[in-house]
Design a protein that fits this description.
The complex is a heterodimer of chains A (about 650) and B (about 375). By secondary structure, chain A is α+β, with helices and mostly antiparallel strands. Chain A contains 23 helices and 23 strands. Helix content of chain A is about 35%, strand content about 20%. Classes of the chains: A alpha+beta (about 650), B mainly alpha (about 375).
Amino acid sequence: MFGRDEKVSAIRLTAAQYIILGIFLILAYGLWRLQVMQADYYSLAAEKNRIRNVPVLAPRGKILDRYGRTIVDNYPSFSALLLRDSTRDLGADADLIAQGLHLDPNEVRARIRRFASMPQYQPIFLKEDITPDELQFIEAHRNELPELDTIMAHRRLYPRNGFMAHLIGYVGEVTDDMLNQPQFELYNPGDVVGISGVERQYNNLLMGTNGSRQALVDSHGREVGRLGETEAIPGKPLKLTIDIDLQIAAEEALAGKNGAIVAMDPHTGEILAMVSGPTYDPNDFAVRVSRDEWNKLVTDPDKPLLNKAIQAQLAPGSTFKIIMSVAGWQEGIAQNLHVHCGGSADFYGRNYKCWVYFLHQSHGEVDLEKAIYQSCDVFFYTLADRLGIGRISKYATMLGLGQKTGIDLPNELSGVVPSEEWKIRNFKQKWFAGETISVGIGQGAVTVTPVQLLRAISAISMGGKMVVPHVINPTDVPPGFVEAARYTEVKSIPINPEGWNYITDAMTRVLLPGGTAPSAQVPGIDIAGKTGSAQVVSLALRAKVKNSSEFAQNGWFVGFTPRRNPDIVVCVLFQGGEHGKLAARLATQVIKAYVDKQRLNPPKMVEKPKNGTVDVGGLWSDPDSGKQDPLEAGRFVLDLSSKPMVLATGAPGMTTH
Amino acid sequence: MSRYVSYRDFDWVLLGFVLLICGMGVMEIHSATLHTKFAGAHVKQVYWVLAGVGAMFLISLVNYQALLEQIHWFYIGGVGSLMAVLLFGTRALGAKRWIRIGGTHFQPSEWVKLILIVAVAKYFADMRQRELSWGDFLKAGAIVGVPMLMVLAQPDLGTALTYVPIAVMGVFLGGLQWKQGLAVGLLGVVGVSAVFLVPRVHVLKSYQKQRLTSFIDPELDPQGSGYQVEQSKIAVGSGGLWGGKGSQTHGNFLPVPQTDFIFAAFSEEHGFVGALGVLLLYFIVLMRLTQNAQTAPDRAGTFVVMGVVAVLSFHILVNVGMVVGFMPVTGIPLPLMSYGGSSVLFMFLALGMVMNVRMRRFVN
């Protein structure tokens, strides 16, 4: 009988023993695998656990103006960390921590909970950009709250209220899209790089290289030994060609308006000022910008994020007439053209109105000069018709319209210069002669950006010398960062000197009584320019909607001083400004600021002349000349090559012995 | 009529090996907690071991057969205490495992383990047939299953799983038939797959599931549940043949080195040779225990000892398996080495039962 004393099956007992043996063999194999077979791999992994590369952050280079004045700098910013390795009861400390850091204690506790599953050696970020008193709090409580620590980062400090925001741009963490582009392949996720403007264009220069410190750490992140260090290379400062004083004048001129103002040195292409409106404050982007704020900026119909100086592609209006004049002169048509403007004219079965028509006036007999300073549409309709779109397109393109200027800023747009090929390529339709008529006055298919227009007019004012606009001086930049040749290249556009004189003289009459912008004249400064009032919808339609502001015209003005080989060229786009003369006033504001500043400066000393002669201008009285007005003015040449001359009077920059 | 129970029959050899293992444990706890907030734990461990030895002697005094007779009461008491935990237990770390009585915490699931060993032994000892009928089989399952489910409900997956080997050993030695074994095996496979693969089945919480699956591929979640496994493997592997400096344990990379991962800490410091040595010690202990089972005076005695063997083997398998990456992280300690009072006490009480059986092997 099977009873209590019946032994348990011996076989089964032995079987159990063997099963246990089997288990132990498996475990021994597991040990063998790790400790003998893969020993090297795991030794390496153990080492990696121990050695940490701690980055040493490199500060970003400052951005300066042409005189070395600081525009953008960094400020040290501290973030508060919570270390979780200690035995401290973080929940109990949360109240004190929250009080000291001006946080909500429940939020602090919630954060601790959220990170509970992460390894203990990873600290939690409690607050970024802590204030000095919060920093003080952490330092003062090192004993009571050893789990609090700080880490320092450099933050960008931009001028307030969006001053120069579009030109400078802003920085942010490199995005995934950017990482995929070839120029960013050396960057790592998490790097702070320039996202727009100069910050982006010259990011390589500004960024510097982070160093690293090899430290022996335990899993709490505590350094238990130092192994080696590579120093951080700080970013290099970037000197712009901008003059802050001029920039201020331009910003004040455009304040509260939509559009752009650009000022350039026509000899070199250096940009002296660049404003776009409306603007935004890039300091908001330095701390995380909320989704709502970003959406607001992106969907704003006035497009505050666009740099309108290089990205607004709009019809140039009457400013285009200057290009037309050059085209017409070079083709031998414009100088001899005489047109009667009765307020409108018929072409190809349509009646095209001159702007004076709506004032119930007419221009009467018009030649090229009058057509320029009175901005007669009918003249230029006629000229356009005579030239044809092919020739117009040729000269416009020669003067750089319809292409990017190559300015050293990202995302420049190219505008449009229409032509027959262009229309077929883009619309699969033939160009109709009637369309040329509107192009003649800068309407229709032609669009320009302010900086393109600036460059074209600048070239005309310089007698055909066309420069490449740029915002930094290549000589100020260490070698290898900038292709200097790209920006110092000067093209020569063939412009007849006679035409050049004629057109620029006509342009000075724009700001005189009888011209289209006499109210913008500044006494004592020789300003030449051209206004433009570009229609957004046709004038007839506007009349129908009773001149509603929604369809307000864009006011343009391009001007320079003095009238030939000028020192400065300014282009203004005043969106919704209606009339070019309002844009003109803004431009002359900037020009005046420039000239005033120049006149305050001591006269430039002339270098010792190379060929030994000096041009001298003088005013003298010659009572023996027998003339009625004994005051003579003129120029004469002094030869200094042979021996030093003794002069009766010294003039600035000349020796008297 | 009881013959004089002599302490000569006490298994001193077994105790010797057991204390040797405990000694290594204390040494390793000391080394692992040296610069941490747990420093001094090894001293506490020594106290627990001493207390354990005392308890062991005490329990070996009472004739186990008497205990067997009263096992019903103990069983009811055990289940009752588990119920109390579910109803009144204090929550800690997301689970209700303890009851507060006075100022101390008690973890009933541990002493229930001991009760179960004896209960299962009694059940099979009373059996009349050589082979297990389906009815017997299911009844055995219920004896273990009910408390197991209650522990699972706390939730405490790890401890609940340690009840399984008791049942398995019991039915195996009690005359499990091939068919029944196969049926259970299949049911087990289906059940496990259901728990993991079918989204509607909510037996395990998701973090428990994640813990169990992350051991398959710790790379998937190196900072979370797979982190511990990876760190353990690194520590063990870097120990090499003879052991290393223990950078992982001392650098705080190895999580909880004094409890769950004590074997990893030991392996890192003493290498393959040391680790194998400890495994050998455990093996000797188990074989010695099995010998005591074979020389037990009655079936019940054999079942009791083999129950202890089962639990011990299971712990070792799961813990060391986890340390080398074969098993998921389940929070099961390494008996005799892991720091922790309840584990040490349980082991010594269990060993006390074994001594109990052995000492009476000549008694009828």
